[in-house]
Amino acid sequence: MDTLNNDKIRRLVSNNYGKVAKDSGQGCGCMTASSCCGKGDTVLERYTGDLGYTDTDINNVPEGANMGLGCGNPQSIALLRTGETVLDLGSGGGFDCFLAAKSVGPDGLVIGVDMTPEMLHKARDNARTAGVENVEFRLGEVENLPVADNTADVIMSNCVINLSPEKTKVYAEAFRVLKPGGRLAISDMVAVRELPSDIKENPDLLCGCVGGAETVEKIKNALEIVGFESIDIKLAGASRETIEEWFPKNNLSSYVASASIQAEKPSTQVP
Asked: Which residue of 156, 225, 240, 256 has the lowest C-beta tally within 10 Å?
C-alpha cells in the first residue's frame, strides 16, 4: 500500500462515507460500507440506544438521519440551552443536529459541517422533509471550518475528529469559532496505548474510526496548545464490548476506547 499522506486520508474517508450515504444510509458505529453488523432497523436502534440515546431521541429525528455512525452521545455532555448556537463537526445525516435543534429551540441555531457532498445532500433532504428550520448544513473540512470567528456557544462532534490527519488543526479551528466561554462536547475514539503501524496504515481501520485514534495524552496536549482549559477526557466503561462487536476478529479493544472529551474556551482572552 502506498504511504497515506493527509490528502489521501481525506479522500479515502470522504469516498468511504460517501458510499455509505449513497448505498445503504446505515453503518454500524463508526464502521462504513464494510460494516460488521446488520443494517436492519432493530439492530440500528439497539446500537444507538447502547450509546446512551433514548427511544425518544431515536424516534424524534427525521427518518434516515440516524445512520448509526457514532461512538457516543455528545448530547449527554453538551448541556444545551435555549437560544444557543451549536456547531456539529462531521454532521453526517444530521442525527445529532436535529436533536440539538430541539434543545436550543426556535431562537437557537445548529450548524452542521461535513466534507462529504453525499452526506450533506442527505442531511439537507432530511431537514427539508421534516420542516426543521433552525438547522443548516455546510460543506467543509473540520480542519478549515466554513464558520466565522466567535460564532458558536457549543461545538459537538461524534466519532469524527479521529478521522482527521491534522487533529491539532481541528482543535485550533474549534477554538477560533467558539465564543469566549464556549465549550466542547465531543464523543470520539481514543487510543489507550500507541497503535502499531499495521493498524494506523489500514484503510478500513482508518475509516472505521480506529486507525486514526490518538492517545488521551496527545489529545489533552493538543487542546492545551491551542488554548483550551478545563479539559476533561473520560473513557466510556462499556466501549470494550462495543468495539469487540464492531471488529469481532481483531483484538482492537485492547488498543482503543470510546471517550467523552470536554473543554472550554476562556471567557477572557489574554492580549
From this structure: 225
How far is it, in rounded angstroms, from Cα 92 to Cα 88? 9
Percent of the chain with pLDDT over 70: 82
For residue range 133-166, what is the model confidence (pLDDT) as tens digits? 999 999 999 999 999 999 999 999 999 999 999 9
Residue type, 168: T
**Which distant-in-sequence residues (6+ apart) come within 8 Å of 73 by Cβ?**
51, 52, 53, 158, 187
How far, in whole angstroms, is CA 74 from its chain's centroid?
9
Which CATH code, of 3.50.50.60, 3.40.50.150, 3.30.870.10, 3.40.30.10, is assigned to 6-264? 3.40.50.150
As to burial, measured by CB atoms within 10 angstroms (0-12 exposed, 13-18 middle, 19+ buried), residue 256 is buried
Q: 192 vs 5, 74, 202, CA distance in Å?
A: 24, 20, 18
